[in-house]
Amino acid sequence: MAAAERRAFAHKINRTVAAEVRKQVSRERSGSPHSSRRCSSSLGVPLTEVVEPLDFEDVLQSRPPEAEPGPLRDLVEFPADDLELLLQPRECRTTEPGIPEDEKLDAQVRAAVEMYVEDWVIIHRRYQYLSTAYSPITTETQRERQKGLPRQVFEQDTSGDERSGPEDLDDSRRGSGSPEDTPRSSGASSIFDLRNLTADSLLPSLLERAAPEDVDRRNEALRRQHRPPALLTLYLAPDEDEAVERCSRPEPPREHFGQRILVKCLSLKFEIEIEPIFGILALYDVREKKKISENFYFDLNSDSMKGLLRAHGTHPAISTLARSAIFSVTYPSPDIFLVIKLEKVLQQGDISECCEPYMVMKEVDAAKNKEKLEKLRLAAEQFCTRLGRYRMPFAWTAVHLANIVSSAGQLDRDLDSEGERRPAWTDRRRRGPQDRASSGDDACSFSGFRPATLTVTNFFKQEAERLSDEDLFKFLADMRRPSSLLRRLRPVTAQLKIDISPAPENPHFCLSPELLHIKPYPDPRGRPTKEILEFPAREVYSPHTSYRNLLYVYPHSLNFSSRQGSVRNLAVRVQYMTGEDPSQALPVIFGKSSCSEFTREAFTPVVYHNKSPEFYEEFKLRLPACVTGNHHLLFTFYHVSCQPRPGTALETPVGFTWIPLLQHGRLRTGPFCLPVSVDQPPPSYSVLTPDVALPGMRWVDGHKGVFSVELTAVSSVHPQDPHLDKFFTLVHVLEEGAFPFRLKDAVLSEGNVEQELRASLAALRLASPEPLVAFSHHVLDKLVRLVVRPPIISGQIVNLGRGAFEAMAHVVSLVHRSLEAAQDAHGHCPQLAAYIHYAFRLPGTEPSLPSGAPPVTVQAATLARGSGRPASLYLARSKSISSSNPDLAVAPGSVDDEVSRILASKGIDRSHSWVNSAYAPGGSKAVLRRAPPYCGADPRQLLHEELALQWVVSSSAVREAILQHAWFFFQLMVKSMALHLLLGQRLDTPRKLRFPGRFLDDITALVGSVGLEIITRVHKDVELAERLNASLAFFLSDLLSLVDRGFIFNLVRGHYKQVATRLQSSPNPAALLTLRMEFTRILCSHEHYVTLNLPCCPLSPPASPSPSVSSTTSQSSTFSSQAPDPKVTSMFELSGPFRQQHFLAGLLLTELALALEPEAEGASLLHKKAISAVHSLLCSHDTDPRYAEATVKARVAELYLPLLSIARDTLPRLHDFAEVPGQRSRLASMLDSDTEGEGDISGTINPSVAMAIAGGPLAPGSRASISQGPPTASRAGCALSAESSRTLLACVLWVLKNAEPALLQRWATDLTLPQLGRLLDLLYLCLAAFEYKGKKAFERINSLTFKKSLDMKARLEEAILGTIGARQEMVRRSRERSPFGNPENVRWRKSITHWKQTSDRVDKTKDEMEHEALVEGNLATEASLVVLDTLEIIVQTVMLSEARESVLGAVLKVVLYSLGSAQSALFLQHGLATQRALVSKFPELLFEEDTELCADLCLRLLRHCGSRISTIRTHASASLYLLMRQNFEIGHVSGARRCGPHRALVRVASGGWTIGKQVPSSHPPSPHPDSRIARGYQGSPDLRLTWLQNMAGKHAELGNHAEAAQCMVHAAALVAEYLALLEDRRHLPVGCVSFQNISSNVLEESAISDDILSPDEEGFCSGKHFTELGLVGLLEEAAAYFTMGGLYEAVNEVYKNLIPILEAHRDYKRLAVVHGKLQEAFTKIMQQSSGWERVFGTYFRVGFYGARFGDLDEQEFVYKEPSITKLAEISHRLEEFYTERFGDDVVEIIKDSNPVDKSKLDSQKAYIQITYVEPYFDTYELKDRVTYFDRNYGLRTFLFCTPFTPDGRAHGELPEQHKRKTLLSTDHAFPYIKTRIRVCHREETVLTPVEVAIEDMQKKTRELAFATEQDPPDAKMLQMVLQGSVGPTVNQGPLEVAQVFLAEIPEDPKLFRHHNKLRLCFKDFCKKCEDALRKNKALIGQDQKEYHRELERNYCRLREALQPLLTQRLPQLLAPAPPGLRNSLNRASFRKADL
């Protein structure tokens, strides 16, 4: 049947007019349509060359949008509001701005403050979101669009999947389950119940006669109803791996945070409460030895304790009452500790004394120690009153954070009782950190752990000598050790409860480190949470986005050991002074806890009686915005008197020192070791450092440094880098014009400032990366300003363009390098991208808003240019140094400029412009350019012009840096151009006048040079070439929105020419082609891609005389008498006019066409890329709201019409979906003749036939003989993968669905016959590719589908072809990690690609599988309907043509295929309607030709008449009725008997063939219908043959290759019988007998004889298989199936029948192939000689019991299952299958194998008994069945054993254990054409207990012998068998057998022989044990000696126990045996049970 389908199409097409063929052949003899495409002159311009595009702007000018009707108007030109300027307010985290106000700010601070508050300036392309680059179509978005799809009803889903198992194939159709719309069941069981079934409704108006046109119109209207608008929404989302155009808008710059932890301090309780205790929290990283957060101060004292300090405290500010803090950790590590330090009020005594009471006294002893406590309280109260402002260190402890987050802490922990339980850390971690995580090797995350409440009970007292951070790090490192020294110390017992949890996203009541309120802050009175500033452990590269100016002061140590006098209790006071007067101390020091927010002074804690104290104090200061030379920190050292003495002051100043905060204009930070003055500093000391020895001052320790202190600034104003400081200072000096200016030791004047500035620009590359990135926005802004607004020094404009440009290149390079890990897929640095997108603005052109307009969105039209620089700079200067040539001193705005501007707008020859002039790159003059004409005297430049110029003329070193990061400069230019247009209100200017010609010249030169770099670097540095390629493509794509589009198209053409030139000499063209493909794809991702292709202009054929496609095809149009319309033809081909007008679409489709050429380089990779690009675009059109209307979409589809021709020509290399095993075979209608088997006729015209008609010489081997093999040329080139082919076909269907039908019809009219044949074949392939597979296919689908393997294949090819290097792959993979290790930033978000979703996930939910089936069903239906629509168009086209019959036959063939494949009810209604219309219009197709079409149609209609779905039944029966009626009417009119359909139907019906089953199952449920089928087919060999072929197909689909081979052998035998009747030929088989050696079953095909049919009777055995050629084909298929099934021995038998035929035909080529295959088969047999390598099958006996089974009741079958099938598997499958049929609780599986007593069964239930059986052979048989194959082929007898005891149990004691052996014989031998065969004979044998024992011992002995003799030896197996034989745990087994049966000599003489046989078995067993032990000893090593000795000991024990039992002698043993006992072991001597 499959082959019938394959060739009938060809027969039809071949019946054509001879003259027609001659014309065609003479044209096409030269080769395939592909071969000439690359260089064909018929296309005007070869595909490898790019046509010159039309002048876009001119074309638009000549065709205004108003010329287009309605919705098409929007396609003509970009929308007026395409580009707009948005001012987006900068997001401020705090409710207050937090910037300094009302202060006189210097230039640098003012610039910083302005930068941190100004709005973002965003160029918004309003429609960009519709581009494929910004709105990716992913599996998720597809699924969203797929909501609301109707559910399509499929036959296989309603009746159970046809492939789910052998039972399903037939039985499923007998069940009563059916969908809701049908009140009846169908199938085999109901064929006899037709009278009882309810009738289906009839089709109204079916019998009315109507005009064919009306029928067609009605059918079309019905087909158009409820169709999904977007076809590709039903298909897989485009492959994200190929989406090179994918971009995302950068995130706005934000303040950097690490992973955030919320720490709440709940309570602090000591054993005794006598004084206030204060806490400090901070994070420390032990590995980095660094404090990584500022301090958090908390106060958990009770009100009574706080009251003790009332004398010293002001009213506490609410910000100092915080008890919870949020810590940020950028680099989480297991070495981070939360350190808690406690302080108390200073008191007399050292720390140990003060801690003693806390260690000694317990809360439980409060009553006992009442007096002591009272005394302590009193003392504490006195100290608080007197010394309340001073603190002393008290105790500390630390919490190891890693223990908390990993939930494995050793501390006393409670679970969080508040709030909801968070997910476990491991769960959260799998999702990846929410914030930036460490990119290091520490697998530690603080972002998603379970909240924990800790109770810290042990504190360590502080030691006066070990207070420094260095000591603390030692303690912390020691804490991690198991034997920590700290644990030996006596702790201070306390209870501190803290809560640690991940910080919420937006916490309420939160204060920033500057104490500003962070949004949301609902109530200012709420107790706040403090955000704690992080000091990251390593560099963090993040630009500053907000104003921050903090200073931290860390006093480390003080050495007063040489200081005389009472200086012991030392406290250091810190003050921030703006002058030298004490009143000038500023309140900028942050308060700690329970105090005022800011203070003017702060003290360090006091260490009692210590002259050289160490400090751990941290002072936090808010730096004033403007720090001047007088600002300094003043440190005053006090001796504090702890004991009140009369006349002694509380505090005595004992020293002074200071740090001036500015030095040479820079903030001073870092470590200092300062000398301390004994005396008060003199006046004006603040401008000097204490290192200067001032006269008359006394110094401690002789002016040595005695005070160690460190300053750290966290500032977004002060860069703290010398190179950045100098650069900013110089720039601001120039802006202020404040000369002379002192810079360090030099004084800058106007004369030398330029030199310093140039040096500073050059030195920027030396700046430290961290501050450079932090201040990158400032630096870039200043550099842009220097380029755009050259400074004026001494009245002269200084051109710093080149220096600033080079500095910018280096800065960008440094920033990139610092943030390498954070780059996106294109190698872009997100921070720099964000700078351009948000922060970059043109200096001095602030967008001003119209009055009253809200400052959110600003239309371009409303923007006016803001005020520029101060008027003082706009001086009229007669002499100006421009950025151009200084020799050209032209007055601004002169006529010259006007002329040049006008000329620039024309397309004049610019060959004399500067690019080719003496001012070539390199010289100093090259940098100097004329100022823009519209600048007047203003020295400003246009940034984009300067950037382009400087880039082109840059030196090689700088150019290299620029090329590495070209994207940055491209994007900067684009934004500058856009701002220039928007702010200058130039958007209304014609595009050709927007930019001057010289700038466009620069762009041309730039694009050319970058293109050249891409081409030259592709083989040296692929990664850079890829990045550059993408950057250039994006740049040109962006320019399409701004400049003359024709100009850009010419640039693209120029780039293509460059690539094409290089391709000819390239060693690796595939790499270049890949880059060009990606370049094209990015260009085509423009949001106005459709408009750019001029879709609305009519395509004009070329005026030149060069022959076009149309002219060459005009003579050969099949269906029109006049020449084809050249316009239409050129629309469907990649003609010159098409590529010229639809420039981008032409480029894309040309890339596709070239990639699909047979000889294309790197084919597989390029196929995928090219097809993916087209698919992605079509998907975006489907989802684009602008193209939703049908008329608009039809116009869009016109851009892709050549895709139809491309796909048609690629047909030979598309994946053949129809030739998958079990699928219907595809039509061989391709022009290339695939003549396999008997020579498939090609789908157009077989070349040999064609040549004969044309009068040419007959091609060699052209007679229709079996000698024709497939020509190699037909599949030249790389075949497309299944995935690529399917995607290409989906695109083709999209074009067919959306294109204008009238246009398609005009095109079809112009097609030649071969072209039309290929088009129909393409449609056929579409049907096969999108055929629905059924719901269960989704459930069963392999978890890793072919998609993944294809992807890997493509990757491998990439590597082999050299288009991707190992380094690049590594970099790509590294980029898949995010900046800080976040795994979510995978390359192009691979996690959402469809293959990830559909293939890698094995655990799909039922809903997901349901959804997939729903979408697939809709896709299959829509694809088939599109094919049907196209077929209707073709039918209408050919109605009046000469070659009508050939084409219509082919069309009907496609329709028949669609009706025969798995289709939905909806499609079948329309498909059957089309079939009826075709038959009614062209009845001669079926009834006048001697064709198989009629039979095919009848079979399909019959199958659908038995459908479970009533609508299908209704339409199928209507079609069948009309078919018969029409046949009758035609016969009636002509008087002839046309009985084709009648005879086919009668034959099938008389044979009792099951209506509704085209393919009978390989497992019929009962023998009776099967015999009916056999009897019915006896008289119809044609149907029998069809049935066998379909059976073979089904078997192959299920993997039953042996059965498929048997079907083909039976088919061959059938044909042989027929041929033997015709004539006796010696080389032919004599009938079925010849095939007996292959299978004994084949004799059943010998039913044909002369009395049944006459061979020459018309219509019988008329199929093509009933020929010698057909016989050869069937035998070859049989041999192929045998080979696939591993039955190589049978292959030989098949070829024994085939070789004589080939020899008779002298077909030596085919004989060579056959002998080659024989050699392969014999080689395989030798390689797999043991047999274990191929497992043939597993067999089960299945018995059916119960009236429910009907004919099957009490029948037994043997089932053949795939190898290694478990009993549970078949049991579950059969139970599930019959449960589905009979309902729940009806089917029961009988668990045992005992005989079934029917009287005990429930009559309402269905019982199934399943038993595993093994093939059984008599002894004489085994002599012939030598090999493993012999013992698995031709099986008729099977054995199973059932153990039982006399009392009914299965197992019992040894003396009563019997065994029943059952032998089953089947009707046929396995393998057979079915996988189950009825049992025809049953025989039972019962073994006595002693015989059972003999069998068991013989089996055990055989196992031992096998293990011992195995070669090579297997020691493990040998030991296992030995252990089972002699081991102490099991030796009771053999021993017990011996003791039971051999202990006593039996009384019954009949049993003597059994007794003796068992004794001999044991002797043999002992001997084999001994052999095995000897073998084992030789195999083992030293390590197993003892084990072996144990085995030997066990064996000895066993042998000794058996010895007495084995030595007994039977007295009568030697006497002659009685005659009746001689055959006691023969099976016949026992009870038999014959069935």
**Unreliable residue stretches:** 1-37, 39-43, 160-193, 408-442, 849-938, 1101-1116, 1220-1275, 1342-1349, 1362-1367, 1370-1401, 1535-1539, 1546-1572, ...
Query: What is the first-to-last residue Cα distance?
Result: 41 Å
Largest sheet data: 13 strands, mixed
Q: Report the radius of gyration as a whole number of Å.
A: 47 Å
Query: How much helix, percentage-wise, in residues?
Result: 40-55%
Would you tell me the overall average pLDDT? 79
Tell me the total number of β-strands. 39
Helix-and-strand structural type: alpha+beta
Count helical runs.
64
Strand content: 5-15%
Overall 3D form: flat
Offer a few descriptive terms.
2035 residues, alpha+beta, 13-stranded mixed sheet, six-stranded antiparallel β-barrel, 64 helices, disordered N terminus, disordered C terminus
Protein described:
The protein has 64 helices and 39 strands. The radius of gyration is 47 Å and the shape is flat. The N terminus and C terminus are likely disordered.
Précis, in short:
The protein is α+β, with helices and mostly antiparallel strands and 2035 residues long.
Helices and strands, with pairings:
Blueprint: H1 2-14, H2 18-28, H3 56-62, E1 83-88, H4 107-117, E2 120-125, H5 139-145, H6 155-158, H7 166-171, H8 212-224, E3 259-270, E4 277-285, E5 290-291, E6 296-298, H9 303-307, E7 324-329, E8 336-345, H10 351-360, H11 370-387, E9 391-400, H12 401-405, E10 413-415, H13 425-430, E11 452-461, H14 469-479, E12 492-502, E13 510-511, E14 517-518, E15 529-531, E16 549-558, E17 570-577, E18 589-590, E19 598-599, E20 602-603, E21 619-622, E22 632-640, E23 651-660, E24 662-663, E25 666-667, E26 670-675, E27 705-715, H15 722-736, E28 741-743, E29 746-748, H16 753-763, H17 769-774, H18 776-788, E30 792-793, E31 796-797, H19 801-818, H20 830-839, E32 857-858, H21 895-905, H22 943-953, H23 956-964, H24 966-983, H25 997-1017, H26 1022-1039, H27 1045-1063, H28 1069-1083, H29 1089-1092, H30 1109-1113, H31 1126-1132, H32 1136-1141, H33 1143-1155, H34 1163-1183, H35 1190-1197, H36 1202-1210, H37 1247-1254, H38 1282-1298, H39 1301-1310, H40 1313-1329, H41 1335-1340, H42 1346-1361, H43 1366-1375, H44 1394-1400, H45 1406-1438, H46 1444-1460, H47 1465-1481, H48 1484-1487, ...
Parallel strand pairs: 7-15, 13-15, 35-36
Antiparallel strand pairs: 1-2, 1-32, 3-7, 3-12, 4-5, 4-6, 4-8, 8-9, 9-11, 10-11, 11-12, 13-14, 16-21, 16-27, 17-20, 17-22, 18-19, 22-23, 24-25, 26-27, 28-29, 30-31, 33-34, 33-36, 34-39, 36-37, 37-38, 38-39
Helix pairs in contact: 1-46, 2-37, 8-47, 15-16, 16-19, 18-19, 19-23, 20-24, 22-24, 22-25, 24-26, 25-26, 25-27, 26-28, 28-33, 28-34, 33-34, 34-38, 35-38, 36-40, 38-40, 38-45, 39-45, 40-45, 40-46, 45-46, 45-47, 46-47, 46-49, 47-50, 49-50, 49-51, 53-54, 54-55, 55-56, 56-57, 60-61, 60-63, 61-63, 62-63, ...
